[in-house]
Design brief:
5-stranded parallel β-sheet, binds zinc ion, 5 strands, 2 domains, single chain
Length: 321
């Protein structure tokens, strides 16, 4: 399908890279930033295909059919190296493997490509080693760092990258992506799902609609008990949990203001819960909690301790209702 067709939205980023490629002026390292679930990793893989495709299309896109494209699709191309964190960290050993990989000329493609997913999870020694790689770029190579928290990367690394900011998808684009990955045809459900993932269809992964609703019910239940769900085990899960609570608070607020307008709710299946709980909440409290959670989410980017964050939320909940 190629970069142009597989990737929905992100037209500015496509143009920048395709123009640079056409003019043979690609940077040696790119940093793909933006919230998770917006398609950065798929974009990076599609771009890798294009760089090594044997029969690019008339639109200068990859053919998605040649041996090289197929090997990249199955993560089996000798000139592509993808680094992913293990237990939430990228260690120096992984960066040494990158260096070894880049020390050899392309094996069968035109370029050697390294993709570092969640690059901000490189620890100190990995970051320092990686910086050396950036200072002496290998010929015919391209590195793509992917991060939803780029401010956690060393400034010296960031300054050596060409940065592309991936924005959230709009509702129509999100629905298009969901249609491709989920077997749901019903427009109404697709619209609810699109609103739930707030421009980041990737966060739904292969999760089924029923499972997502279950998850919302369990979060709503925890909210009623004034606790953070037990399922939250790390910072990433807490961020995810906060995203969902924010949706629930928005719905509770709307139920409180317009008690009979079920159709304006994002998770309308929780209407019964909303009606019950909205009577316990006053509007000022909901708005205050909403703002506090958005602020907290911002602080999470600076590695705030999980149990401090959890206590903070629980004490806010207990304070006011
Ligand atoms: Zn191809």
């Amino acid at each position: 399908m190629g970069l142009l067709n597989t990737i929905i939205g992100h037209n500015k980023e496509k143009n920048i890279l395709l123009n640079a490629l056409k003019k043979d002026r690609l940077a040696t390292t790119y940093l793909f930033c933006g919230e998770s679930g917006t398609g950065k990793r798929t974009f990076a893989l599609e771009f890798a295909k294009l760089l090594n495709c044997e029969y690019p299309t008339a639109e200068s896109d990859s053919c998605d059919r040649c041996v090289s494209c197929k090997k990249i699709s199955s993560n089996n191309h000798p000139d592509l190296f993808v680094v992913t964190p293990e237990s939430n960290v990228i260690k120096i050993e992984a960066i040494r493997e990158v260096q070894e990989f880049l020390s050899l000329a392309p094996y069968e493609g035109r370029k050697k490509i390294v993709i570092v997913d969640d690059a901000h999870l490189m620890n100190q020694s990995a970051s320092n080693a990686f910086l050396k790689t950036l200072e002496e770029p290998a010929a015919n190579s391209l590195i793509i760092l992917i991060s939803n928290l780029p401010e956690l990367l060393l400034e010296t690394i960031r300054s050596r990258c060409f940065r592309l900011n991936f924005s959230l998808l709009n509702e129509a684009e999100t629905i298009q992506v969901l249609k491709r990955y989920l077997e749901i045809k019903e427009e109404g459900i697709l619209r609810i799902l699109a609103r739930l993932c707030m421009g980041r269809p990737g966060i739904l992964g292969g999760t089924e609609y029923e499972e997502i609703l279950d998850e919302f019910e369990s979060i709503a239940d925890a909210l009623e008990k004034k606790t953070v769900s037990d399922r939250v085990k790390d910072r990433i899960e807490l961020e995810y949990w906060i995203d969902r609570i924010i949706i629930i608070l928005r719905d509770i607020l709307l139920t409180r203001m317009y008690p009979h307008m079920e159709e304006v709710l994002i998770v309308s299946n929780l209407y019964g819960f909303y009606s019950r709980i909205s009577k316990k909440f006053d509007i000022d409290f909901i708005i205050k909690l909403y703002t506090q959670l958005i602020d907290l989410k911002r602080s999470l980017k600076f590695n705030i301790n999980l149990s401090i964050a959890r206590n903070y939320i629980e004490s806010r909940l207990n304070e006011q209702y």
